[in-house]
Amino acid sequence: MSTSPCPRPxxxxxxxxxxxxxxxxxxxxxxxxxxxxCPLLYRFRVIDKLPEKPSEAATRGTLVHAVLERLFDAPAAxxxxxxxxxxxxxxxxxxxxxxxxxxxxxxDDPAGExxxxxxxxxxxxxxxxxxxxxxxxxxxxxRELFVETELESGLxxxxxxxxxxxxxxxxxxxxxxxxxxxxxxxxxxGALFQMTFYALVVWRLKNVIPRRLQLVYLGxxxxxxxxxxxxxxxxxxxxLLALWEAIAHATATGDWRPRPTKLCGxxxxxxxxxxxxxxxxxxxxxxxPPPRSG
Length: 294
Ligand code: SF4
Prior knowledge:
With 294 residues, the chain is an alpha/beta fold.
């Protein structure tokens, strides 16, 4: 069990940091969501580890997260919108240094107009944050916190929590920044899944049920909160165990079904997806033959 600071970008993969195909050993909220969305997408990402093109939206999200994290390095009174704006170019330069492939995003933009527009959008998201929270009155206990725990079943859960606030009374608040828009009410359960996942991990690690889960949507300027109780965390634990069983079964049998939805439009793997006439690469793990009948 561990908690330690972990820089963005990138939530840990369920298959762990080791390169090459191997069975998944742990689950993060993103990869759990991948499997629920489309098992074949999970396989491509976790087992085949197929590369994906960087996207402007995801990279903007990474940049905005980095700025909001670094802003808390400053003394409380200096955590202002101008200070946050000043951080943007430096954090973008740092990201580019860590991940040179991000330069591809603006390779067709010699005049720099697209990049300027993209940076202005990131700036707008950062500025909107100040209408939702007041960083001069916050003193986070943790930022970009890597958490990992093992349940009694042996399932390992891991992820990165954007911010953890601890009140003088000891109450814990888990905060996550989203650069998109808040979901419609009928989709809120999906949004809260990631947060209850983190609440379960924190509960297992520190024996404290977080008092509040808070999603800060910079895209639409909304804050979604939920105060979990033990029954919520036990429910998400059962759900994760069932999910892990399904992943283990697919891993052993090599049976990863595509599940087409309108989100396929954003999938990088259409050319190898049977739903779009493609063929997946040869399954790289040993397959357990089904039991003989009769
Ligand atoms: S294109 Fe759709 S169905 Fe195919 S792997 Fe991607 S998400 Fe799954």
